[in-house]
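I trust your eye. Have a critical look at both lines of this record:
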Amino acid sequence: MNKVFLLLGPTASGKSEISFKLAKDFPFEIINADLFSIYEGLDIGTAKPGQEFLKTIKHYLIDTIKPNMKYNVSEFCLDAYSCVKTIFSRKKYPLIVGGSMMYVYQLLNGLSHEYNLIESDKKIIKYIFKNYSNESIYNSLKSDKSSSIEKINSNDTYRIEKLIERLISTQNHIKKFNGLYNENALEIIIIFIDIKNRDILRKNIYKRTEHMLNTGLINEVKQLVKKYNLSRDSQSMKAIGYKEVMNYLANSNDPNNLVELIALSTQQLAKRQITWRNKFKIDFSIDYPNIDYFKLEKFVSESLR
């Protein structure tokens, strides 16, 4: 048993539903690869699978850490690799499901070097983001040819912050994770959800955003802030949906704008996720919204032989 399956695609494209079907029809256990679903309590805004599904299908890396903790790509790679080995030991196949494309890419291809931030570095980064706009930071980094800032969207605060961390941190040049592709015993099989109709995806995102707010996203954020003493600087509160609600609570903005703001941020995320497609070696594509599960089932069945 050396086959690792991945189901990748943009947000709101039905990854969870497809993964549940596959896990019922085949001997899969699911490894979550959506960064913010790893946080305990971030349920509504991450569209986390319900408890009935989590009880029925074995999931890994969901509700693993508290919302006041930080988590990075190095930790994800090591955790996910450990989960892969655990699943194999249980005579099952890993199905890695998610949309945190950079994390998945590093899991497959490895991390070059480990880096560490000292406390003064963290203060500098906090000062930069407090006093300068994303656009100003983005433009200033363009002059540094080694920064690779052109690969990052100017609105992607999280990835810009991570880039600055890498630029100013102390490199110790220790190999940290080689990547699943470099594990000779493993066979990697990637399934990607292609978006044939982006208008339908946008409408789905808007409906999902409305549903999140109608089912208590604002109260969820309030409870998390109170319980864990969170702020807008907390990593967990930088997730789409949570970030917008935090700004709304801090500035007493019009709640009617929340749907538009969250939906727009989610659409921008989906667009970035779609552009990652060309970076992966896709073995099988399925079309959203007309997903042909029969063909997918046949492909998985043949792959497991």
In short: The mean pLDDT is 89. The CA atoms of residues 220 and 226 lie 10 Å apart. The longest strand covers residues 187-195. The beta strands are 3-8, 28-32, 59-60, 93-98, 115-116, 170-171, 187-195, 284-288.
